[in-house]
Amino acid sequence: MTTGPDTVCKSLWKEEKKMKKKVLFGLIAMALLAFPLCVDGTPATRTMIDPIVSTQWLADNMSFPNLVILDVRAPDNYAKGHIPGAINLPGLGNFYLCLFAPDCGLWMEVPEEGALLATLGNAGITGDSLVVVVGRTVDPFACYAIADAARVATTILYAGVENVAILNGGYDKWAAEGKTTSTVAVKPTAVTYTGAVKKAMFVSKDYVEGKIGKSIIVDSRDPEFYFGIGMEPFYTRAGHIPGAKCLPSPWFWILTADKKGVVTYGTWKDINLAREMASAVLGEDTSEEIIAYCGVGGYTSSLWFVLHEVIGYTNVKMYDGSMQEWTADPKAPVVKYRYE
How many CB atoms are closer than 10 A to CB 327? Predict the structure, then answer.
């Protein structure tokens, strides 16, 4: 049987089409490796790494180029067990200053710029690093523990590192799943970090006062503190800043407990649910200015992180002094028992 020219052309065309598909699928695969997926499977919008990564993602990508696993738990917890390759750098004293001390002024303030950049350099972090922050997510005070990791991640982003993620569930979920752990301390190789801080991320009390009624101000504390029914010990007057909306950071978390009701680990909610909650309170205009605050800055960082890094609001700022600084001024107005 003789094969005509048309038959040969069709055969070559089919082979060419198959080859193009193979190339296309290869490019897609490479893209997925370079741009990991969000916790709900939606594509990442950041440069190289998602803002929240799963324990399985980390387990599968331990050799990812320029990866730095930063364990921010207390040194004794790190010594008992940590993710292999993780370095230990607790949040307090390195990424925020002063906590639970009556004579230190404002709590959880950002370190001086030179000290912060030196901390990053000593940890071996560069502008090209992919930093995964690993925190504690268990009792006591599980929500504060989750907020601690968010505070560290936010501060590293403030320092100019572009690719910073939080490990969903922290070390506690990693250990609960039976993944490999280590007790061998890892000492990083120090480098000189030369990034530029993003000073516009944080705003002052005077700035907030000038934005009342003009920008969206959002209170990230628990509702009872927003309404003034209760009061935390680190500020002096109950209630909220006039015009502030209520969007508690804990609403974005899921606490998993054992049969005795003890929290075993905490994770972040699905991005679609987070987006739905945020848009219902703040609106769908992702470019409008939003100023977040809380009691001293921990929940503030968490809300900033989920709004800016996960959901995609582009103009989110933090009032770091929060209610501790605001209520110290007797002239600063406070509203109680009213939703704005």
Answer: 19
- Within 8 A by CB and 6+ apart from 251, the residues are 269, 277
How far, rounded to the nearest angstrom, does the alpha carbon of residue 130 sit from its chain's CA centroid?
Answer: 13
Question: Residue 191: pLDDT above 60?
Answer: yes
Which CATH number is 52-176's, of 3.40.50.300, 1.20.272.10, 3.30.10.20, 3.40.250.10? Answer: 3.40.250.10
Average pLDDT over the chain, rounded to an integer: 87
Residue 111 CA to residue 96 CA, distance in Å, equals 6
CA neighbor of 145 nearest in space, from 169, 125, 127: 169
- The yes-or-no verdict on residue 146 having pLDDT over 70 is yes
Spatial distance between the Cα atoms of 142 and 256, rounded to a whole number of angstroms: 10
pLDDT in tens, 287-339: 999 999 999 999 999 999 999 999 999 999 999 999 999 999 999 999 999 99
pLDDT digit string, tens, across residues 221-235: 999 999 999 999 989
Would the pLDDT of 3 be above 60? no
Same-fold call for 52-176 versus 200-326: yes
- CATH of 200-326 given 3.10.580.10, 3.30.40.10, 3.40.250.10, 3.40.50.720: 3.40.250.10
| Region of residue 297 (phi > 0: left; psi between -120 and 50: alpha; otherwise: beta) | left
CA distance 235 to 58: 39
Query: How many Å is the Cα radius of gyration of the chain?
Result: 23
pLDDT band at 282; cut points 50, 70, 90: very high
**326 neighbors 295 (Cβ within 8 angstroms):** no
In the chain, what are the domain boundaries?
52-176, 200-326
